[in-house]
Amino acid sequence: MMNTPTYLVVIVLLIGSMLSLSSTEKVTSPVVAQIQNPINSSISHKMGVRIVSPLANTSVPAGVLTIKGISSDTPTTDCTVSVDWNDLKPMQNVTATGLGGVKDYSNWTYTYNGKYHLINLGTNELTSKITCIMNPNNTTIKYNSINVTGIKNGTATPTIPPS
Length: 163
Known about the structure:
This protein is an alpha+beta fold. It has one helix spanning about 5-35, and strands at about 50-55, 60, 65-70, 80-85, 90-95, 95, 105-110, 120-135, 140-150.
């Protein structure tokens, strides 16, 4: 059994250890909390764009093709979405179909046709691009590409995911 002075030493050591840990936490917490990227601090959500129809690596009829996509855009962000075919420039503006109106690219469509380019027989790379202007010195761009195989009309039905 320990005598009273031994208890005091143990208690003092335990309290000192807890204070030491507590002071370490207090010192490091503000440092961690202050580490932020000032450029990205205004971005409140992850930015991205994706073609959802047709599905990647599927067969579609060659010729005119309407694609559908989604993006991280909202009615309050300054973003646009465009597409291309096999890296053919210039990229083409899509039609915004989000619930927020003509500048809400959260949902969008584009039709490949003779004005830009039809879907060819064989492999076609379709690329979507979202461009968001966070402020005059900060423009962010993201891409998403899929491949589809153009086949003769009437030989396959494109796979369209449910809405």
